[in-house]
Known about the structure:
Layout: H1 6-36, H2 50-57, H3 64-91, H4 98-127, H5 138-155, E1 159-166, H6 169-176, H7 178-195, E2 201-206, E3 209-215, H8 219-234, E4 238-239, E5 245-246, E6 250-256, H9 263-279, E7 285-287
Parallel strand pairs: 6-7
Antiparallel strand pairs: 1-3, 1-6, 2-3, 4-5
Helix pairs in contact: 1-3, 1-4, 2-3, 3-4, 6-7
Amino acid sequence: xxxxxxxxxxxxxxxxxxxxxxxxxxxxxxxxxxxxxxxxxxxxxxxxxxxxxxxxxxxxxxxxxxxxxxxxxxxxxxxxxxxxxxxxxxxxxxxxxxxxxxxxxxxxxxxxxxxxxxxxxxxxxxxxxxxxxxxxxxxxxxxxxxxxxxxxxxxxxxxxxxxxxxxxxxxxxxxxxxxxxxxxxxxxxxxxxxxxxxxxxxxxxxxxxxxxxxxxxxxxxxxxxxxxxxxxxxxxxxxxxxxxxxxxxxxxxxxxxxxxxxxxxxxxxxxxxxxxxxxxxxxxxxxxx
Length: 289
């Protein structure tokens, strides 16, 4: 299970900004070489493993961004190869080859397009990430759920969703302060990520509610997994701003995603099951009927 922290995404965007400035300087060097037959310019500054560095900053659940980074790396390689062909001829005193120059400029345009695609993906990831917990927020949640719903339907596999609520969370905010409440939300999110399976997905649904997507999981197995999580959560020690120890329990509603109904319906059924769990006294797991 992976998430991209807002800080890491912002750092990746800063790297891209610097890459853009370095690339522009490299293009100037290439054209100076062509005009004045200077020595070959150094390789593009953005070509020294920057794509690999960006990949380390990005936790990419679907693989889309990492695929875009690979295309960016390939485009940069093509751009540098065609650029070296031009500047090598210029260094030998040969005229610029029009066809070679057009191939170079086409490679530059491809590189710019791939760089822009990566930038847009990072901005989207930033917009879809909850800054407090680092989890995906509701903005991108339904897209991810639809993707999983279609995958499960295509492969005829089971999948469940679960809505999780922190019991009496308003009391935590009222008696221990909102800073403690924020700390509880962040630590709870980290706890869920540690305790669930690597391929499960966790979202910040809103307020003190979280949503889980549990692929390859039927209702009985989901209930066993989440009952165990509930028991572990009730024993998780939390500290307020003054260092006082306390505990928070959770209530959970589960529903299976059905091939004949959209994922929004599964979320609504899980929400109703959560309501039943809270009405029955909280700190329990209920399954949608």
